[in-house]
Amino acid sequence: MLQTFFLSFREVFEAALLVGIILTYLKQSGRDTLIKYVLYGTFGGVIASLIVGLLSYLQMSTSEGAEREFFEALMKLIASVLITYVVVWIGRQNKNIAKNLKENVDRRSSSIGLFSLAFISVLREGIELVVFTLASIGKNSFETITGILIGLVLAVGLVFAMFKYAIKINIKRIFKFLGVVLIVLGAEMFGEGIVDLFEIAGEFYELLLIGIYFVSMIILFFDEDLKRIFSKA
């Protein structure tokens, strides 16, 4: 359950944060009439994510035996690749997330533009969560769903409190912590996915793959911190 909780919290937190920044910027810049289109896009992104999740789960649940095992292993590998993308690329973008979003809002200051901005932002996080869920739902469906719901509620509640009551939270530290958690989960999925997909026998190989993924991702994730440390040294 902890696995899906952290994955859910991370994805929903970012999606809610993006929408919150867009709504706040529109309100501050006196474009309140455009807020409804952002809400429409957010709702549309949530619905589209649920549809993708439902169709994917139905596809997975109807498969049996070797086909199901292949599907689960493939989902684990895809999830580990997505985690790499999230940690390395999106993690770097979070430094200027507010500035980048405001520039996007100014460029897309129309009903269709803002609808698509919110829709794509939410759908991207939703699809990532779907893949992460499918990669771990085979273990225990009830615990998986419970972890997702708890992570969702806490993420939305935290972002709501941040914007509603002007609570100051170090977002960079939150993403750093969640980034490390994602690396740990991604390493496990990568190791299990490779071993299951290619039917490699032996726990040693799985641990080796987990270690390779973890070390390489940690170096990429903390590359700037490491550069600062070595430059001072």
From TrEMBL:
Signal peptide: none annotated. It is a multi-pass membrane protein. GO terms for cellular component: high-affinity iron permease complex. The keyword Protease does not apply. Its main location: membrane. GO terms for molecular function: ferrous iron transmembrane transporter activity. The keyword Membrane applies. It is found in: Membrane. The chain crosses the membrane at residues 6-26, 38-58, 70-91, 112-138, 144-163, 175-198, 204-222. Keywords: Membrane, Transmembrane, Transmembrane helix. InterPro entries: FTR1/Fip1/EfeU. Belongs to the oxidase-dependent Fe transporter (OFeT) (TC 9.A.10.1) family. This is High-affinity Fe2+/Pb2+ permease. It comes from Fervidobacterium pennivorans.
